Amino acid sequence: MTASLVRHRPPHPDTETRQSPRARARDWAEIQERMLVPLHEAVLERLDVGPDTRLLGLRCGSGLALLPAAARGAAVTGVDSCPELLALARERLLPADRDGAGARAELCARVPRASDNAPFDLVTLFEPVRRPADDREEPARLLAEALPLAARGAAVVLAGWGPPERCATSSVLAVAAKLADPLRRADGRRPGGRDDLEETARRAGLRPDGSGRVSCPFGYADPDSAVRGLLATGLFDAAARATDARQVDKELAEALHPYIRPDGTVRMPNVFRYLIARLP
């Protein structure tokens, strides 16, 4: 069983309960978020994140990407507009029984307007899997708000899907496109284009300074966990509005069949790409 597989299957909720914001946040934190841990670790290692690092994590979710940075001694600030995810991030990074050990972590619902501390030398936007909740979470908008808080020469890391032929989940995500817009041909392509990271960096006035690819297989304890994890991304919300939640569940479960292994687990190989850019 790979490291990305869920070790303990969460209890199965009914459809109505699973659609609640709290349940979806919990599914994200317990099932889906961990799939990008290899990406987080590769970037932190490459940039030698440590006690001298001040990191601003945009769309930090439930804080899983901030944990290894904090463990390396970095001062971390996480931003996410979802209150349920931010509450889970607080449990992870600022537990009440830590006796002040989380003092170098801060969590916010929006990008701070100003900072009394030293400027950030690392800004991350790791989350290519979650659908933005609204326009305020679009990468360009977030970067425009965050970059004034960064030091000159600061590293800005953007992440996205790798080549579609190396992302098995592309075929599963095509279900969302097909149900949301039946007249559009569902060709299994992943969101975004091959140069979308560079284009986002260019529009933000950033200078590319390296990139990399990381294997991030999506592994689940069983098909039900896979359905719940994928639904927690929000990428199937439009499909559910166009049809209904049960129809989405059914077609998503069918799309997962090729990736079910003999032991009942689900594994989809994927490659994610990251771009390191610098603030002039």
TrEMBL record:
GO molecular-function terms, A-Z: S-adenosylmethionine-dependent methyltransferase activity
One GO-annotated biological process of the protein: methylation
Gene3D superfamilies: Vaccinia Virus protein VP39
Region (Disordered): 1-24
Keywords, alphabetical: Methyltransferase, Transferase
Methyltransferase type domain sequence ranges: 60-146
Keyword Methyltransferase: yes
Coiled coil: none
Name of protein: Methyltransferase domain-containing protein
Lineage: Bacteria, Bacillati, Actinomycetota, Actinomycetes, Kitasatosporales
